[in-house]
Each structure stands twice: as C-alpha cells, then as structure tokens.
Amino acid sequence: MNRSMSFVLLLAILVSVADAAWEDAHATFYGDISGKETMQGACGYGDLFQQGYGLETAALSTALFNNGQTCGACFELTCVNSQWCKQNAGPIRITATNFCPPNYTPPVDIHWCNPPNKHFDLSMKMFTSIAEYKSGIVPVKFRRVKCQKRGGVRFEIKGNPNFIMVLVYNVGGAGDVNSVAIKGHKSSWISMQRNWGQNWNTGVGLVGQKLSFLVKTSDGRILTFYDVASESWGFGQTFEAKSNFY
Predict the structure, then answer these.
(1) Which residues, other chains included, contact 85 with Cβ-Cβ below 8 Å and sequence gap of 6+?
(2) What is the 8-class DSSP label of residue 42?
(3) How many helices (H) and strands (E) does the chain have?
(4) Where does the record place the Expansin-like EG45 domain (predicted)?
(5) Pairing between β-strand 92-99 and β-strand 57-60 as defined by DSSP bridges
(6) Which pLDDT value is given to residue 122?
(7) CA distance 150 to 170
(8) Which of 61, 95, 55, 68 is nearest to 175 (CA)?
(9) CA distance 155 to 160
(10) Is the pLDDT of residue 145 over 80?
(11) CA distance 86 to 34
(12) What's the rounded mean pLDDT across residues 123-129?
C-alpha cells in the first residue's frame, strides 16, 4: 500500500470514529432571552452568571440526566435536518445544569422529555444560536465534550455545625462529579453522600478545621484539593481551589 492510500485509509478511519461519537436528539428552549428561568434548577446551582455558566446551559431529559449524576457535564450540539436550522451556525457547547421532567399527560408523544427520548431544553439564547425561534423544536446531533472552565474547582459550603453540604461546581474535564470526600486537618478522609444534583453532604462536624476535598469525575480522574478553606470558614461561603480538571 503506497503512502497516499495509507493516508486516505487513516482519514476514513478518523472520520468514522468522529461520526460514531455523535448521537441523535431534539432540542427546545425554556424561558425568555434574559435566561432568568434557567437559574437555580435540579443540579443545585444558583446564579449561573455568578457561577460562570451563564446562559450556555441546558436542562436534560430523564434519559440523559441520570438522576442528577450528569450535572456539570458538557455537550456539543448542532442543528440538523431541519429547514429551521440557521445557516452556518456551527455547533454550540453547553453545560448540564437542570432537569427537564417527563410529562405523562396525554398525548404523551408530544412530551419530548419523556423516556426514552434524549432531549435538550436549552436557554433561549443557545437555541436561537442554532435554530430559528419560531421553530420551537429541532432535531440535533450531540456528543460529550470536555468542559473548559476558568479558574479552579469551587466549593460552596452550606448547612449547620452538624450537617455540612457542599456544592461542587466550575468543574473542568468531564465536568460531572461522581464522588467527593472531605477532610479536616484533625480528621481522616470522610466520604460524602450525594444529596441532590452536585450537592454533597456529611453529618460529621468539621467546624474550626481547615478543609480539603478529594473529587472524582465520571471519567475516573481524581484530584485532591488541600486546605481549600481555612479554619475560619463559615456557612454560606464559597472557596476556589488553585487547580482544576482539564
């Protein structure tokens, strides 16, 4: 086989691999152009602007949400096979920050977030980046991509002296966290339980101790963030680590 034929074969293999990474779904939008209705949500995030997500977000259907375990994951979407797709729009990238619940009110076939449908309910800004507003719903291709976040992983501490709940956000790489452990400078490592979305909790009292965190993302990568919060940390505060997943 000559060099040019080898190159063509390699290119064909790469193209086929790339194509296999894309899956079929549909996309709609919720809220208005301000995105106010997209704040908060089932992943436990709050003000998405303050937390760095902005309006580049989506609520996922049951088939994608995975009981909140997909919160924080990033996806690339492109509008396909519709007269309503915007010309030369290119793909968009979003972070999963909410849940699009199923609706079993008849007729059920018009409720796009029902299982087993793979569906993205986008912010209006993101939907109108790839499709005309009046379309309402369009077919899309999607795939998981690495999250690119600015700064370090952030930890918002809530609760009370007997119950610590930590929101883990601004996570790069895979984006979706599937285990968290916490450590005070006087304690051993303590596994935290997923409360909801990306909120993790423990009943061990760690007030007055420096806090470190061990975080594992869905791709199996693990990072340890030492002494993220000083002994004087308080409930309602957010602390940013010096590193992130990439």
Answers:
(1) 79, 130, 131, 138
(2) T
(3) 3, 15
(4) 40-152
(5) parallel
(6) 97
(7) 8
(8) 95
(9) 16
(10) yes
(11) 21
(12) 97
Yes or no: say if 11 and 3 are a contact pair by the CB < 8 Å rule: no
The encoded tokens of residue 161 equal 């002296």
Q: CA dist 213 to 70, 112, 147, 210, 226, Å?
A: 20, 38, 20, 10, 6
Cα-Cα-Cα-Cα dihedral sign, residues 37, 86, 53, 28: positive
């409360």: which residue's tokens?
195
> What pTM was computed for the model?
0.88
CA distance 42 to 69: 11
Concatenating the DSSP letter of every residue in 45-104 gives: ---TTTTT-TT-EEEEPHHHHGGGTTTT-EEEEEE-S-TTBPTT---EEEEEEEE-----
Query: Can you list the alpha helix ranges (DSSP code H) found in the chain?
Result: 3-20, 62-65, 124-130
Tell me the one-letter amino acid at 236.
Answer: G
Amino acid 31 reads G
Query: Which amino acid is located at 192 in the chain?
Result: M
- pLDDT per position as a tens digit, 66-101: 999 999 999 999 999 999 999 999 899 999 999 999
Task: Find how far residue 5's CA is from the centre of its chain.
Answer: 41
CA distance 183 to 168: 15
Contact assessment for residue 110 and residue 101, using Cβ atoms and an 8 Å cutoff: no
Q: How confident is the model at residue 7 (pLDDT cuts 50, 70, 90)?
A: very low
Structural contact between residues 33 and 96, judged by C-beta atoms closer than 8 angstroms:
no
Tokens of 19: 């194509």
Peptide linkage before 106 cis (omega within 30 of 0):
no
